[in-house]
Design goal:
The protein is α/β, with parallel strands linked by helices. It has 21 helices and 14 strands. Strands 2-1-3-4-5 form a 5-stranded parallel β-sheet, sandwiched between helices. Strands 7-8-11-6-12 form a 5-stranded parallel β-sheet. Helix 4 packs parallel to helix 6, helix 13 packs across helix 15 and helix 20 crosses helix 21. The longest helix has 20 residues. The N and C termini lie far apart (about 85 Å). Bound molecules: adenosine-5'-triphosphate (ATP).
Length: about 475
C-alpha cells in the first residue's frame, strides 16, 4: 500500500478550507488546513507535508513572502499559490519566488486536483531563485479568465529564455506582452530591441537584422550594426514576423539553428545572444499552406505560443481597461474623467475591431473633447459613430494622393519603435512607393513589360532589372 500524501492548506477563508479539504480528502490525500501563515510555517519547519497550497493575503503574513522561506528550508517542497487578487504582478511574483503553480481564484476544483497531482509527481528540477523584478512599471490590465491564463504563462516565461510566439489581432497588446516578458524576465538589465517586418522595405530587412559590412551593397558606406547585435544580452522583438520576406526567413532559420550569424557581406560568425519574442496578427499556418512562411522556421519560433484574445472575447475587462486608459490620459495632461453606467454599457456593446488600441484612442478623445466630468452613454455612442470604419473609408476616398502618402508616411515613422532618426529614409520611402507603382503598371498592361515600361517612362531593361530586384511576380505569356 502506498503511503498517503499530506497536503498543507493555508487560507483565512473557512469556506475555501472546507471545499479544498473535502475535495483533496476524496481524492485520497491527507489534508491539514489552517487559517494562519504562522501555523503553516510551523508545519513546514517540522517537516510535515508533501505539498503546500497557500493563499496570498492572510491576517498574519503574506503567503507570497512565505514561498522563498519555504524554499530555503525545504527546497523540494512544492508550493501552489492561490489568490483572489488575480493581477499580473501576483502571477509574476509567485513564479519568481519559486511557486510551482499559481491559481487565480475562483478556480476549478478539477484543475486544482490536476495541479496537485502534477506537483507531487513532476520530476524535481532545481528552480533557481530569481532576482525579483521590482516595481509595477508596466501594468497588464484585465481580470477575465483569458487574461489570467496569459498572466500565468507570461509569469512562468519570465524565469526562462524560451522563444515565444505571440499571436492576436491588431491592438490586442502583443507588443505590451513582449515588453512584459522582457521587463520582468531574466534579461531585463539588457536591451529590448524591436523590429517591425512590415515597416521596413523588404530588401533592407536582412541588413537591419544582421547588420552589414561596408560596401556590402550600394549605399552601404560604412559598417551597419544589426538588431541582433544591438539586442545582445537582451530581448529581440520580431514584430509582424508573418511579413518577413523568404530570403530573410531562411537566414533567420539558420541563425536559430546555429546560434550565430554573419553580417550581410561579412564572413566572421557572431554569437547570437538574444531572447526572441515574435508576434504576428496573421494566421501563420495558413501562410505556411500558401507557401509564404517556412514551416521549419515556424516551429523554431512557436516554442511557446501565446494567443491574445480580442477585446470582444473578454468584454468583462472593458470597464477596467477604460478606466486605466482614462487615468493614462490624465497622467499625460488631459482632463480627468469618469464614466457613468450608461457609458460603460455602451462600451461593452461595441465589437472593438481595433481592440485595446481603439479603446485607448476613444478614451483619449473623450477626455480631450468633452467638457463634462462624467461621460455618459450618448457621448460614447457619438464618438463610436464618428470613428465608424465607413466614415473613415469615405474620408479616405476623397483623400488626395499627397494626403494618402502623408498618412502612410506618418504611420511608417510612428512604427519605427526606436523613434527617429531612421537611416536611409529617402531610399526606404522611395522603395516603398516603387513596388506598388510597378505592380500597378504591370497589372494595367496585363503583364506586358514593354507597355508597362512605356507607361512608366522607364527603359525596358531598367524595368526588367527592377522587377527582379523587387521580386515582383511576372505573368508570362502575356508580355
Ligand atoms: N491588457 C492590457 N492592459 C493595458 N493596456 C493594454 C492591454 N492590451 C493592450 N494595451 C494597450 O493598448 C495599446 C495597443 O497595444 P499593443 O501596441 O501592444 O498592441 P499590438 O497587438 O502590438 O498591436 P499591433 O498588432 O497593431 O502592433 C497599447 O497602448 C497598450 O499599452
Amino acid at each position: 500500500m502506498t503511503e498517503t500524501r499530506t497536503i498543507l492548506v493555508a487560507d483565512d477563508d473557512r469556506a475555501i478550507r472546507t471545499v479544498l479539504s473535502q475535495a483533496l480528502g476524496r481524492a485520497g490525500y491527507t489534508v491539514r488546513a489552517t487559517s494562519s501563515a504562522a501555523t503553516l510555517w510551523r508545519w513546514v519547519e517540522e517537516g510535515i507535508g508533501d505539498l503546500v497550497i497557500t493563499d496570498v493575503i492572510m491576517p498574519d503574513e503574506n503567503g507570497l513572502d512565505l514561498v522563498p522561506r519555504i524554499k530555503r528550508v525545504r527546497p523540494e517542497l512544492r508550493v501552489v499559490v492561490m489568490s483572489a487578487q488575480s493581477t499580473f504582478m501576483t502571477a509574476v511574483k509567485a513564479a519568481q519566488r519559486g511557486a510551482f503553480e499559481y491559481m487565480p481564484k475562483p478556480f476549478d476544483l478539477k484543475e486544482l486536483l490536476a495541479v496537485v497531482s502534477r506537483a507531487l509527481t513532476a520530476p524535481a528540477v532545481a528552480v533557481p531563485q530569481e532576482e525579483e523584478a521590482e516595481g509595477e512599471r508596466l501594468p497588464l490590465i484585465g481580470r477575465s479568465a483569458a487574461m489570467q491564463e496569459i498572466y500565468r504563462t507570461v509569469a512562468r516565461l519570465t524565469t526562462t529564455d524560451l522563444t515565444v510566439m505571440i499571436t492576436g489581432e491588431s491592438g490586442t497588446g502583443k507588443e505590451l506582452v513582449s515588453r512584459a516578458l522582457h521587463d520582468y524576465g531574466r534579461r531585463r538589465t539588457g536591451p529590448f530591441v524591436a523590429i517591425n517586418m512590415a515597416a521596413i522595405p523588404r530588401e533592407l530587412i536582412e541588413s537591419e537584422l544582421f547588420g552589414h559590412e561596408r560596401g556590402a551593397f550600394t549605399g552601404a558606406l560604412s559598417r551597419g550594426v544589426g538588431r541582433f547585435e544591438q539586442a545582445a544580452g537582451g530581448t529581440l522583438f520580431l514584430d509582424e514576423i508573418g511579413d518577413m520576406p523568404p530570403e530573410a526567413q531562411t537566414r533567420l532559420l539558420r541563425v536559430l539553428q546555429e546560434g550565430e550569424f554573419t553580417t550581410v557581406g561579412g564572413r566572421n560568425p557572431i554569437k547570437a545572444n538574444v531572447r526572441i519574442v515574435a508576434a504576428t496578427h496573421r494566421d501563420l499556418r495558413q501562410a505556411i499552406r500558401q507557401g509564404l512562411f517556412r514551416e521549419d522556421l515556424f516551429y523554431r519560433l512557436n516554442v511557446v505560443p501565446i494567443r491574445l484574445p480580442p477585446l470582444r472575447e473578454r468584454a468583462e475587462d472593458i470597464p477596467l481597461l477604460a478606466r486605466h486608459f482614462l487615468d493614462r490620459a490624465k497622467a499625460a495632461g488631459l482632463p480627468g474623467k469618469q464614466l457613468d453606467q450608461g457609458a460603460v454599457d455602451r462600451l461593452r456593446q461595441h465589437s472593438w475591431p481595433g481592440n485595446a488600441r481603439e479603446l485607448e484612442n476613444l478614451m483619449r478623445r473623450l477626455a480631450a473633447l468633452y467638457p463634462q466630468e462624467v461621460i455618459g452613454g450618448d457621448a460614447v455612442a457619438n464618438e463610436l459613430a464618428e470613428a465608424e470604419p465607413v466614415a473613415e473609408m469615405e474620408a479616405r476616398a476623397s483623400e488626395t494622393l499627397e494626403q494618402a502618402v502623408e498618412r502612410h508616411l506618418s504611420s511608417f515613422v510612428a512604427a519605427q519603435k526606436d523613434g527617429l532618426p531612421v537611416r536611409d529614409l529617402y531610399e526606404r520611402v522611395l522603395a516603398e512607393v516603387e513596388r506598388p507603382l510597378l505592380r500597378l503598371a504591370l497589372a494595367a498592361t496585363r503583364g506586358n513589360q514593354i507597355k508597362a515600361a512605356a507607361m512608366l517612362g522607364l527603359n525596358r531593361n531598367t524595368l526588367r532589372k527592377k522587377i527582379r530586384e523587387l521580386d515582383l511576380p511576372v505573368v508570362r505569356g502575356l508580355s
